[in-house]
Design brief:
Beta-lactamase, two-stranded antiparallel ribbon
Length: about 325
């Protein structure tokens, strides 16, 4: 039986140590961009084509702002979020909808439980089931619906690729990443998912973070400021994406399903990564190492990256990156 060549030159990014043995190895790709957009460092293929998954949400939010979305602060951060479904997250989603004259019944994202185990338990205990409101992408969908209202577009069919909203998102993604959108499929929440390269994804995040640092009034700057100022709304309690942004002033970061992460720095530098097996386990470790290569003090993110391997409830090893900034 032949096995297709699907690794595209992926290399080991993280090793899982248990006791005195390496138990597992996570392969993947990483790109680190300098402030001028050039490739500073790369492991694997920096131009590998990937599905950015939820790491694309800040780019989608830029398109929404450019077409009339009126949101700022924690509201805009929630539009960019894969939120944990905690009460404070749901309040903002409902506020976004109400501001556009809509309700949660207008959401068309996939019903799901909150990502937060505690929030999911509370919902079950109250006799409720999975819902579009509590699914982690409901902020993005509320933003999409509010954009449609602002632009005079129909809310029906807002998830169809031919809808004006989704065509606008494609155009913005191509502009910010500098990469044509060559592949389109459906993301887990039901929205169109657009392909990019790791370098293109990093380029978009560097643009967003640098614009926010300059303090201009552009849509990328507004997105970057909202995310950096309201990291809890982008993720939630105990989430590493929230902790990274809290630890590094001006950092704009977004996690994505199936092993994706991207982050931009105020100087325009940026990183993006893809764990080939789709695992979330090494993402924080690899992101921290990549940020170190981009100039972030490793000590600032060491606690966020700490990923112990447990045996009988206590650490017996750790997940460690195969690379990092010089000591």
């Amino acid at each position: 039986m032949s096995v297709p060549d699907v690794d595209h030159g992926a290399v080991p990014l993280a090793l899982v140590h248990r006791g005195d043995l390496v138990e597992s190895v996570h392969l993947g790709h990483v790109v680190v961009l300098a402030p001028d957009g050039s490739v500073r460092d790369a492991l694997g293929d920096p131009d590998v084509v990937v599905w950015p998954r939820s790491s694309l949400k800040p780019v989608q939010a830029v398109a929404m702002l450019d077409h009339g979305l009126d949101a700022a602060g924690e509201d805009l951060a929630l539009v960019c979020a894969s939120h944990s479904g905690e009460a404070g997250h749901l309040d903002v989603v409902q506020r976004l909808l109400a501001g556009a004259g809509l309700t949660e019944d207008d959401l068309r994202n996939t019903p799901d439980w909150p990502l937060s185990p505690e929030a999911a338990w509370l919902r079950r205990a109250a006799g409720h089931g999975p819902a579009p409101l509590t699914q982690n992408c409901s902020g993005k969908h509320a933003g999409m619906l509010a954009t449609c209202r602002a632009a005079g577009w129909p809310t029906d069919g807002y998830l169809e690729p031919a809808h004006p909203l989704q065509r606008a998102v494609v155009a913005t993604a191509a502009e910010l990443t500098g990469v044509p959108v060559e592949h389109v499929t459906v993301d887990g929440c039901g929205a169109p998912l657009l392909s990019s390269t790791l370098t293109g994804l990093a380029r978009a995040f560097g643009t967003i973070a640098a614009a926010a640092a300059r303090g201009d009034g552009s849509a990328p700057a507004r997105v970057g400021r909202a995310m950096a100022a309201h990291p809890w709304h982008v993720g939630g309690t105990g989430r590493d994406v929230t902790a990274f942004m809290a630890a590094v002033p001006g950092l704009v970061a977004k996690d994505g399903a199936d092993g994706v992460y991207a982050a931009g720095l105020p100087d325009g530098g940026a990183v993006a990564l893809k764990v080939l097996d789709g695992s979330a386990r090494p993402r924080a470790v690899v992101l921290a190492a990549a940020l170190g290569l981009a100039g972030v003090d490793p000590a600032a993110v060491a606690a966020v990256a700490d990923t112990p391997v447990l045996g009988h409830g206590r650490p017996v090893g750790a997940v460690r990156a195969t690379f990092g900034a010089p000591a």
